[in-house]
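Quick one:
INPUT:
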């Protein structure tokens, strides 16, 4: 993670533990991939989606985020993904939750994750080839353009980690986490300054007033509802988030079939 990312989370991260609560459904998906393995959580932040048990270690560069980790959270080391202070193959699973796009050298960080992983690397990210959803298409296209630049491509993940299993992660309509796509069926939430303060994408923009005014106008006039009425029938929506898993044993044995 680079200096700019430090500055971002020093500025917006003071109440992240309140705004960014793990969603039970998403947590269950991650738990199924992690199992009872030893885990290194890279870019761990306040500890959302981190297993609460022994055998887990967190890495986080921001002191603001580290200060909000709960008392029962895993022990944390202040470090960056690009220079993990651990021996090769030190953990069964290396986990990265919506963090790779903040790293200053994504390739180096991914190489480090692969180095210290014995069994697999599990990453939750957003696919730059995704279309996004109404918020970034209709109101904040700058966010979509920036995210397409900063999030790692599937090609980069594959080039560094070897064969990867990419699973869509549809977001439930009542998602309790507060990331960018969580409120796809609750458009009024994006008008709330407290909600936006928990979404790092908004901190990258120099001006958001006119876009928010247009969204508020469309909600009051009913234009938003007319354009997005079909969403009311959805229980979840694919807005581009992906679970990516790379089996390290497969990478080490390229001539053998992965099971």
């Amino acid at each position: 993670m680079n200096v700019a990312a430090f500055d971002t989370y020093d500025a917006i991260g003071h109440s992240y533990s309140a705004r960014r609560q793990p969603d039970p459904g998403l947590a269950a998906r991650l738990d199924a991939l992690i199992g009872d393995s030893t885990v290194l959580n890279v870019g761990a932040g306040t500890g959302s989606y981190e297993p609460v048990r022994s055998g887990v270690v967190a890495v986080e560069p921001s002191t603001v985020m580290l200060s909000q980790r709960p008392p029962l959270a895993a022990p944390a080391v202040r470090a960056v993904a690009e220079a993990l202070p651990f021996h090769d193959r030190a953990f069964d699973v290396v986990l990265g939750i919506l963090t790779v796009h903040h790293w200053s050298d994504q390739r180096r960080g991914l190489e480090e994750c692969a180095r210290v992983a014995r069994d697999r690397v599990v990453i939750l990210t957003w696919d730059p080839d995704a279309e996004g959803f109404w918020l970034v298409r209709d109101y904040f296209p700058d966010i979509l353009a920036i995210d397409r630049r900063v999030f790692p491509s599937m090609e980069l993940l594959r080039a560094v980690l070897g064969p990867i299993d990419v699973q869509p992660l549809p977001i439930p309509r009542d998602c309790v986490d507060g990331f960018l796509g969580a409120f796809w069926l609750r458009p009024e939430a994006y008008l709330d300054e407290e909600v936006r303060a928990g979404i790092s994408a908004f901190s990258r923009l120099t001006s958001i007033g006119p876009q928010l005014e247009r969204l508020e106008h469309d909600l009051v006039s009913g234009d938003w509802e007319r354009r997005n009425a079909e969403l009311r029938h959805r229980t979840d929506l694919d807005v581009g988030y992906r679970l990516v898993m790379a089996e390290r044993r497969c990478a080490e044995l390229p001539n053998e079939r992965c099971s």
